[in-house]
Amino acid sequence: MPRDSIGLLGKESPEDEIAAAIDWARRSPLHRSRLLEYLPQQHPLYRERSANEVIRIRGYLFESFRHNGLPESALPFVLEALETGRSAYLVAGAAIAIRGLPAPRPEIIPYLLKAVSNMKFEDDAISFETYKPRWPLTNTTTALMEIFRTFQWMGSAALESVVQLKELCLDSYFSQDVRAEIRKAISVIEDGARSGCCEWPVSKRLRRTSFRKRKRLTAEIAGLRLEDHDGHTMTFGEYFIDEPALVVFFYTRCDNPNKCSLTITRLGQLQKALVDAGLEGHVKIAAITYDPTYDQPYRLDSYCRNRGMLLDDQNRVFRLETGTPDLLRYFDAGVNYIGSIVNQHTTELFILDRDGNIANHFQQLQWNVSEVIDQLRKQVRKRRPASAHSVVTRLRDLMSPLLSLVITFFPKCPLCLAAYVSVLGITNIHLLQFAHQLLPVFVALLFINPLSLFMGAERRNGLTPFYLSLLGAVCVAVFGLWMDARMLAYIGTGLILTGSLLNSLDRDKFAWIKERWLVLG
Amino acid sequence: MIDKDEYIKRTQEQVTAHEKAIENGLSKLRSTQNSTEYKAALQAIPSVKEVEDVRKGMQLLTNKQEDTEVRLLVLRKARSAIGRNTEYIRDCFLIVQDTDDQVELRRAILSVLGAFSFGSREFVPLRPEYMTLLRSLLDDPDALIQERAAEELAKEKDEYVQRRLLDGLAGREQPIVPTAKAIQLLGYDIHAEHYPVVRKILEDPRSDETTKVEAIHVLGNDAQSRDLLTALMTDKQQPIEVRMTSATAMKTSNPDYFTHLAKSIVLDEQEEPDLRAVCLNAMMHQSDPSALYADDDFVQKLTKVRSLTTSDALKQQSTGFLTKAMRHKPKG
Amino acid sequence: MIFRSSYTSAEQNTLLLTLPGDGSPVNFFIGGKFGSPSSDDQDGAISLVDSTNTVLLQRTVMVRVRKNANNLTERERDRFLDAFSTLNASTAVYQIFLDSHNGPADPEIHRRNAFLPWHRAFMSSFERHLQVGFPSVTVPYWNFDQPSPNIFSPDFMGSTPNSVGRVTFSSTNPLRNWAIGGVTGVIRILSFNSTTSGAPVESETGTLALGADFDSFSFMENDPHDFAHNSISTGPLRSQATATQDPLFFLLHSNIDRLWAKWQWLRNRFNASDSNSYSPGTGARIGDFVTDTMWPWNGATAPPRPPTAPGGPLPQLAFPSKPPPVPTIADVIDYIGRTQGNSNNFDYDDVPFV
Questions:
Q1: Domain contains C346
Q2: Could you report the predicted ipTM of this complex, rounded to two decimals?
Q3: Given B89, B116, B143, which residue is the final one in a domain?
Q4: Which of A170, A229, A252, A261 to mutate to test the interface with C (most CBs of C within 10 A)?
Q5: Cα dihedral C143, C149, C154, C158 sign
Q6: CB–CB of C226 and B14 under 8 A?
């Protein structure tokens, strides 16, 4: 398999070629990152493939991360499979992928437990030894077995799940083999806890929001014609401009109750929460079908009402007579098709601002009602400017990022202040008459910033910021002090500041930058 | 007129008699001296549920040397109890897998396993083994066992059986079931990838009527098949069942377009009466037929159709349509 | 029709009422006469006559009960099929029944003692949805241990199928329009000859003889229920995940419910607080206990319930009746209304009131 072609897989690629690419990347961890682009469900790789074919590819892809490490950016996709998956192959692949993380994380536990619940009556024999095996197979595993093996790998990080595991152990719906794996997991977890190994930080909830998909509404999209559950038609712009809105996608022929059925059910719950939050009437809600040919208005109406969703002028469900592909492209929605039928899709929710622009996006995992309400409240509170292009507006728009920049770089502790002062001192030492006496202090303080980044690497964004800052400190010390090459020292200053900036970003943004600009190969 | 008291008395007597029959049957079953007596006792008893009786029966069921009829009787009479015992269910798996064992028994057990998968608690943890068993049976020497296994897997939307069925349809390997059956089984999963190959089969003039009908049922979901279905529906050379099935598929997938076609067929005196009746039938069972009922021109013409036709089916459907149209007419 | 002067007094074909003359009302009770149900809407009547036999008031009624599907008149059959097809083909309501009786719903509705009460509520829900557009319709039952040639005909549930199991409907049968998720038609091969024999399941008598207490009787989920489904050798009705894709499902379950109703009548099991009438069984969990509300009508989606609850509350009749919008198991035990106010307003043609 030529290494270039791993990045060239598409809808025409035969499955064997895809599997070969995955196998090749599995043997060569440096190329693991090339597989990441195939994780989003909307990738052309999945076009015109059956649902089962997509599951085969994704399950095999997930499983490969066990061998070459599970990158942070892949984690939401894997967790999504655990949270909503009903295919044993996909869920097993996801459970195995978790073991590719650098270290266990307690926040994974709820997803593993949900996967147990999903698989309890759907478990099946599977194998990852070869792709598309020919049955009968003798050496198989099952999704439940793999989930509980992941619990074993979690060790003491899964301590909070022991009570539930003990209950599961008594459940006669699990086979003897599965119960043996549960008992083993309990034993490993409790042994790990007793030995005092490892302090686990309080599990943080995985963040699901992303501002990555901010997008301005185009005239083309604004002009698309929607038909609602009552058969009324209007353009996208007519419905979505003027008030903040929330958009989800679904279809009535979805056979996974953890996805579309649950999305609409939760939308009904969200509507009630909006009333409690005092946002009723200030926000529009829209559910749009992926399947406009089959999902005629009467089907949409029945499906949504029967799941508790209120339908009225502010809360509608739509189909598009034409233009669904354009709309989905605009939203970059996580869906793909075989012919006109959906073959797979993710669970996601979009927040639109008053102008119909995409402002925020909850992706991959089940959105949290209070987080959604918070984002909607922010949009409701935003005033629309008198003229979008006024200088005042522009300045105001710039204020926010500028302020953020100042806050980022403003030293937040005395040590960091000392570090920054030392950097400035060393690089501009020629301007300071008495600074030479303070040189050793400057040098000592110079390395405080990289040291603090190293100590917080696990909690924050890993070692990359530390490496940059360290390199910067070395540049400043070597070029600024020893070689007196001030320009090169300024480069070192830039590296230190870049390391600080990267460390201050939230994980999603950092992951995006890292994947786009920092990953080699 | 039913005499209630007599009815009560009769029902109670029947139940009492049944309870006695089981008691007597068990007593006979436990006192049999040879296999002929055992067989007769087993035939007479309604069911066997007691632990020891079932255990004895299972010894016979798992004995390949035993008379097949006895083994079948044990299965029939003790099946409820077998389904509540994990070990016995596994014994059944082994018998089905054994291609050297009696095919009649293997078929019967495979069928009973389907019932266990429906409602037996003890069956749930064995699901992975059951699915493995079914996949292995796709290559069984008995065609009926192959087909039954394929159907069970297809209903579960199993990826392996879909692969095998598609390979068979595409000629990449020996088919495990006939073409029409393969199409039908793939239809259990609307998200499968059978549409292009099924379309091709439907377009092939060599395909028989049964195959065409199965293909049409499945292609109602396929947006690219609209023109093909239209052609079949309107082609007077096609067998009538093909045309009627196309009409129903069109109505499901493209209701507005179907209505437009159906109206002209219904009013065409040269058309097949059964097809015209099916079109009217479909028109009456749409999401919103009110526009149709309000089409005075069509209603008038249909009235004439009803008076002229000699077909009972067409007359009945026309009457039904006109009655509903009358009910939908605004009053006053 | 029959009349009673009080809820528990003896039934009479005519009732003599003495009115006080001061305008205050006198209560009496009416019911259908066992063995004489209606076959058409409003084909029964009550007449109020005075002492000189002058008719003061006449009111038509329908004694609407669930009947043996094999014995329906043509009109009864066609009305039912029209209603059924409307639910499936004309509205999207049938989707509720597909979504609440499928693979993901299985743990909630099968393999537990709540199986019978849940399916009774499910049948009520289905029947009431039919009655929205067709008030005179009930769900007939397939008496599966008896020959039923009229059911398996082109004008009803479909004729003898072809080699791949495709049943044929006559051109006038509304079930011609049957479609599930865009796939049309019905697949069904019976493993027995329906003209000459019943399905190979536990007989009705054998079912009634399963035991005097609910725990013993609950084995009927296995046989005849599972084996009735299994008597279909080819087709969606065989499998739990796909069973509601065959319209015969509801006739099968109407019979399951009838067998329970008959057992209740035979053993006098209408008291929800009596464990012989209903017991949650061993290993009971939420949804098994007599005061538990039932999914999906209760909208409960927290584990161990399924993740969504399609359909909303149970449809209600035009007058106050049980089961309520959010039914408990207790609400469906005394379906016949032995205690006043409990009636679920359905009956079977072969299960008397007393």
A1: no
A2: 0.95
A3: B116
A4: A261
A5: positive
A6: no
